[in-house]
UniProtKB/TrEMBL annotation, chain A:
Residues 1-35 are annotated as: Disordered. This is Trafficking protein particle complex subunit 12. It comes from the Eukaryota.
Automatic annotation (TrEMBL), chain B:
Residues 13-203 form the Trafficking protein particle complex subunit 13 N-terminal domain. It comes from the Eukaryota. PANTHER family: TRAFFICKING PROTEIN PARTICLE COMPLEX SUBUNIT 13. This is Trafficking protein particle complex subunit 13. GO terms for cellular component: TRAPPIII protein complex. Residues 207-327 form the Trafficking protein particle complex subunit 13 middle domain.
């Protein structure tokens, strides 16, 4: 250690404790200087999540809790967030709500239901000597807002989501505009599903106000406009996207798929199929292009080829193609193509059970 | 979705019809697939507001995963990571562009096009030969043939095979409709078999239009109120008034540039006009004027045909529906018996110099009327007298025959001017 000028040496306890942690791995304090400090066994948790093995996530959380793997307050919270997310993924929505409720959110305090010192780093100065602010993962707030509608209470979810939006907008810091935009997106999705298109559009307007050049967002505006029937509006949105002239397969496929939608509107299914084929050639795992091409084949009276395309893609790139919408479409095609469609759908269902992630909604096969 | 009701006994047949209404597909929002930003899952929400903590720890945590590949297309990434991790900030909208087939028959409305995929399947072990297929729509009033292969029958549908076709029909009647599909074929035993199958649906009225007509001097105003009876918010793509002969129409709209906030938001994109589901209304206002100078083409006391309203609405992926109202009739114009018009007034009047006003008196009744007395009203006595009569105050005119007119002059002088007034 270099000699210090006594007049400039900092002698506060925090400074000396920092020096301690650099050298002493058994120190109780955390500075989050490495991923290991985010949570114990995090790579394993993330790996399970990425493989869609949510049942294993739940097992792992249960084991961690019983074996006292979790010692610091933030570790409990990260594991709780993973657990609640896993339960949500497995559509065990009541259980997920119970998990969130174990934090005792103040339901009657909509502006910030998790306003409590126990979620603040400052409340644990020995563990987090240098940190301030909330240690609650934002995903907990999202799940808290999302869950009521999953158990039949949409108005409560809407209230919570709009309150969460205000909350995110009232906070300062780099992450909060991104979180506010997330909530705006979730609300737009909610209103879209309930066909409240005027609200959907005004939410998208707000998103565009702070993000006017996001080609994916503009394309999504186009999809909403097309769903409404505003063909001219969608044309303009897609033209804006195409005009950005970005590079890369993702962008080129986005533009190609948007162009194909224009052909579908004009009922020129042959041209739409061509566009999708160019996309698939560029990126064989562009499952949106595959799915939509199959629909175009069907609308061109070619039910057999549409089925072959979807079956072939599921076989070729299962992890990309295993998507509930694609499977619903394939099952609708089976129901049309076969008088006795029970067997073939059962076959598909069995294959899905072997290959699909835990969160795949197998009710989509309607077997 | 598929077949609604089937008639006939398909079990004794080699062939069977499968039917699916093919309205346009819809965009699917995958809202059950919750995707999150790792920052919001792996760390406290305020962790990175602390200056000593670097967000790089999150990137490191993600990259540690064995299946983690950053910028490659999904092909090499044999994981379901995209089902829980956000890739684009707006992924919360859950709209990836996936289209989904119609999952139910849905409602069908007057003015729409009924489109259906019809597949005739051979689920037997034997070939079906010389298949004559017919599809027609039957309503209370008529039968409309959509398909008929009598002239060129399908030679063969092999065992396990299929013959598909798509039919379209513009729906122009309300009430119950039946799609009748029939197949006449030779089965495996060489027997000629007849298979009829029936699929029923009901056509409802999507809109109603109420009109109000008001006439103010020479302008007729038409207010059309469109009410939406469907179950979804309806996008009005085009609503146009087609005036009848001798009429000209222009739409009166709210000047949207007046409202500042409207101007701002409409720069991003225009709001489409949506009429709310189940009883929402929207009013259109048209100004109509007659193109001919004479009012003679209007029959006295008779009807007054203004024109028709053409409505085009659109639903998912631009699926159009079209309706036209019947002829809209204005209030019959009751002509006045006696009409006094100013024919000529000098465009510039010089103070204290007499000026000539030319008037025309028309007797529009069937009988001789008169004699007449024309006076200049001086208005209320409290106002200063602005126009001084110079010359005859009262003019007596001879009786007028039916439908005839006379012109006469009055000489006036302007005494002093405060505000010009028309007599």
């Amino acid at each position: 250690m270099e000699d210090r000028d006594p007049s400039t040496a900092v002698s506060s306890p925090a400074f000396s404790m920092e020096n301690l942690t650099l050298d002493d791995p058994l120190s109780p304090s955390t500075r989050f200087s490495s991923p290991a400090e985010l949570a114990p066994d995090l790579p394993s948790l993330l790996d399970l999540a990425a493989r869609g093995q949510w049942r294993s996530v739940i097992d792992k959380v249960a084991r961690a809790r019983t074996t006292s793997l979790l010692s610091k307050p933030h570790e409990h919270l990260i594991y709780l967030a993973f657990n609640a997310l896993a339960l949500h993924k497995l559509r065990r929505f009541t259980d997920a709500s119970v998990e969130i409720d174990s934090l005792s959110p103040a339901d009657d305090r909509p502006d910030d239901p998790f306003h409590h010192p126990r979620f603040q780093y400052d409340s644990y100065p020995e563990t987090y000597p240098t940190l301030r602010g909330s240690m609650l993962p934002f995903s907990v707030r999202l799940l808290y807002a999302d869950l009521p509608q999953r158990i039949g209470n949409r108005p409560e979810s809407l209230d919570r989501l709009y309150s969460l939006l205000s909350f995110a907008r009232s906070r300062s810091g780099d992450a909060w505009p991104r979180r506010a935009a997330f909530v705006l997106g979730a609300l737009a999705c909610n209103h879209f599903i309930h066909r409240e298109f005027d609200v959907t559009l005004s939410l998208i307007r707000e998103l565009l106000a702070s993000n006017p050049s996001d080609p994916v967002l503009l394309s999504r505006l186009g999809y909403v406009q097309l769903q409404i029937g505003d063909v001219e509006g969608a044309k303009e949105s897609f033209a804006l996207v195409e005009g950005m002239k970005l590079s890369g397969t993702e962008f080129e496929n986005l533009v190609g798929r948007n162009r194909a939608l224009g052909f579908i509107v004009a009922k020129d299914y042959v041209a739409a199929v061509r566009e999708y084929e160019v996309c698939i050639e560029r990126d064989p795992s562009d499952v949106v292009a595959v799915n939509n091409k199959a629909l175009c084949l069907m609308y061109s009276r070619d039910l057999s080829d549409s089925i072959k395309l979807l079956e072939g893609t599921l076989e070729r790139v299962p992890t990309a193609a295993l998507n509930e919408t694609l499977v619903v479409n394939l099952c609708s095609m089976y129901e049309l193509a076969y008088v006795q469609h029970g067997d073939i759908k059962k076959g598909l269902s069995n294959w899905i059970a072997r290959v699909a992630p835990d969160d795949f909604d197998s009710s989509c096969t309607r077997t | 979705m598929s077949a609604l009701h089937t008639g006939g006994s398909p079990s004794s047949h080699s062939l069977a019809f499968r039917v699916m209404r093919l309205c346009r597909p819809s965009f699917q929002a995958e809202d059950a697939v919750l995707r999150l930003d790792p920052f919001d899952l792996l760390a406290g929400e305020d962790l990175f507001s602390n200056p000593l903590v670097s967000p790089i720890v999150i990137d490191q945590a993600i990259r540690r995963q064995p299946s983690s590949t950053s910028d490659e297309g999904g092909g090499d990434d044999f994981s379901f990571r995209s089902r829980f991790q956000l890739q684009n900030p707006s992924d919360a909208m859950a709209l990836s562009g996936f289209l989904i087939l119609p999952q139910s028959f849905g409602a069908i409305y007057l003015g729409e096009t009924f489109c259906s995929y019809i597949s005739i399947n051979n689920s037997s072990n034997f070939e079906a030969r010389d298949v004559i297929i017919k599809a027609e729509i039957q309503t209370e009033k008529q039968r409309i043939l959509l398909l008929d292969t009598s002239k060129s029958p399908v030679e063969s549908i092999r065992s396990g095979g299929r013959y598909d076709f798509i039919v379209e029909h513009d729906v122009k009647e309300l009430g119950p409709h039946t799609l009748v599909c029939t197949a006449l074929y030779n089965d495996g035993d060489g027997e000629r078999k007849y298979l009829p199958q029936f699929f029923k649906f009901v056509v409802a009225n999507p809109l109603s239009v109420r009109t109000k007509v008001r006439t103010v001097k020479e302008t007729t105003f038409l207010e059309a109120c469109i009410e939406n009876h469907t179950k979804s918010n309806l996008f009005m793509d085009q609503v146009e008034f087609e005036p009848a002969e001798y009429w000209r129409a222009s739409i009166l709209k709210v000047d949207e540039s007046i409202s500042d906030s409207n101007a701002q938001t409409n720069k991003i994109f225009r709001s489409p006009l949506l009429i709310r589901a189940g009883g929402g209304i929207f009013n259109y206002l048209y100004q109509l004027t007659q193109t001919s100078q004479e009012s003679g083409q209007v029959k006295v006391g008779g009807s007054n045909i203004l024109g028709k309203l053409q409505i085009t609405w659109r639903t998912n992926l631009g699926e159009p529906g079209r309706l036209q109202t019947q002829q809209i009739i204005g209030t019959p114009l009751l002509p006045k018996d006696i009409d006094l018009q100013v024919v000529d007034v000098p465009s510039a009047i010089i103070l204290e110099r007499p000026f000539l006003v030319c008037l025309k008196l028309t007797n529009q009744s069937e009988k001789t009327a008169g004699p007449f007395e024309v006076t200049v009203s001086q208005g209320s006595s409290s106002l200063p007298k602005l126009v001084v009569v110079n010359g005859i105050q009262k003019l007596a005119l001879q009786p007028l025959e039916a439908y005839s007119s006379t012109e006469f002059n009055l000489v006036r002088g302007l005494h002093f001017i405060a505000f010009p007034l028309l007599i």
